[in-house]
Amino acid sequence: MKHRAVNRRSVVIGLGATAGVAAVGGITLTAQADNTGGTDSKGASVNDLLVFDQDDFTEKTESIADASGTEHSVTYRFYKARNYVTNPSDSDHQTLVVSVPVKIDGTAVDASNAPIVLANAVGAYMPTSVAEATGVGQAKLEMTGMGGAMPSGMPPGGTGGGMAGGTGAINGMVNLAKPALVAGYVVVEPGTRGRSLTDSSGSYYGTAPAVIVDLKAAVRYIRASKGRIPGNVERIVSTGTSAGGASSALLGASGDSEIYEPYLREAGAADASDAIFATGAWCPITDLEHADGAYEWNWGTLPTQTTGKTVDQSVSKELRSQFAEYQAGLKLRGLKGSGFGKITARNYTDYLLEHYLRPSATKYLAALSASERETYLARNTFITWKNNRATFTWEGYLAHVAQRKKTQPAFDAFDLSAGENNEFGKGTTKARHFTAYSAKNDTTGLSSKRVDSDIPEKLKLMNPMFHLLEERNPNRSKHWWVRLGTSDTDTALTVAANLAMAVDNLGDDVDHAYYWDKGHATNEDPGDFIKWVAKVTGYKS
């Protein structure tokens, strides 16, 4: 597979605009003298038509909490929504806003070389918009008309023992726009198309791969605006949760991959690199074509939250077998320092227990007072606390989690009811199967029991594991922050662990941990992430 060379000239894109000036999404874009990218039919450069007006901002002062929850007076420049492509199919969603710190608690901030945090608000593969944002951290996740089960979970507060979202949450999801701004970083919040969007003919235009195309286009816009958008365009750090975490991971894994080029050309993306420097992914629900097997391997014996009953164990067994075969074929090794070699379905429970779950429980219990710890252990007798360490079995851990959130198959439902089925919709077809197993066992009466011919390519476009393991993309992000709650049954624990192993085995830097007793969309250590960004980017404020 070929990867896109940075600054390679784009193909000609007809914009139907007069030379030098175009109206895009209701915003007038004025061309400059240089033509560094592709050109429209009148000779105007695509990059010229995407000029970021650095004087078009409103200066605002707000009280904003940092990652620890402490309030600060922050003065910042807010650049209202503007399109990041020249040919948007949806002007309301294919826009971004920029926030640049000027003063924090009265002290001047120079953000000219600060990291740029690209904070997506994606959840459930639904649309997000910043079109009406008047300040930082106002990205809107649109859940109206969603239909079907949520693929990425929007849990009520307290699911799994943790407050959904935690510090910096927006729309119930992890969002670090405000804490990043207080830290002195430049913040870019992109809107994206999502799976519920339809045009006047009833055709779905926000399904796969729209979300990743939009995020890539946003990155290209930032890079093409070097010197205009403050901050270091070589130090872009992506953040996202759940489907947004999956999208963030995909963005990091697929930098400059040419398989997205036709989609980016069609949208009129800037002629620039779409590679990012670092990736933050909270509870990423990804590797969808293998997610059903992983879910059954992890949670298959637990009753569902909705029925209180266990799922069909014959189906569960078949899917677990698929996972075992898939995992063996990955040939992934445990993270360096873990003491584990090749990770298969046979030793995965030991790997999770020793490298993640027991250390996570130990950290949690060690932070409690003696009386609090005694109370917790009395309620949770499956844990043995000795020499300041927590030990327990896999069976004890599963009994502690107690229930699974999703039915089966969790992602490619036999009746096409899962949100992911909608994510792979096409044209006026709302939902489609994307695995051979579920297509074969379809219960909706489809005439064909096979996946559509375009599905394999769509899966490549949506799966970071393809870019990491099959293509070993040299332009991927080299720094990764991955988090998941131990009581998060929206996905399997192995999904995040496999992602972490994949980048670690390629020699990349990865900081991966699980939050004990926490559910979906939880962020327990936002301050550590903010410090990590400074460390890996080498930024000193």
TrEMBL record:
Keyword terms, alphabetized: Signal
A Pfam family matched in the record: BD-FAE
Domain BD-FAE-like: 161-294
Residue runs in coiled coils: none
UniProt key word Signal: yes
Keyword Signal: yes
SUPFAM superfamilies listed in its UniProt record: alpha/beta-Hydrolases (SSF53474)
Signal peptide: 1-33
InterPro entries per the UniProt record, alphabetical: AB_hydrolase_fold (IPR029058), BD-FAE-like_dom (IPR049492), Tannase_B (IPR048124), TAT_signal (IPR006311)
Protein name: Tat pathway signal sequence domain protein
Species for this entry: Streptomyces griseicoloratus
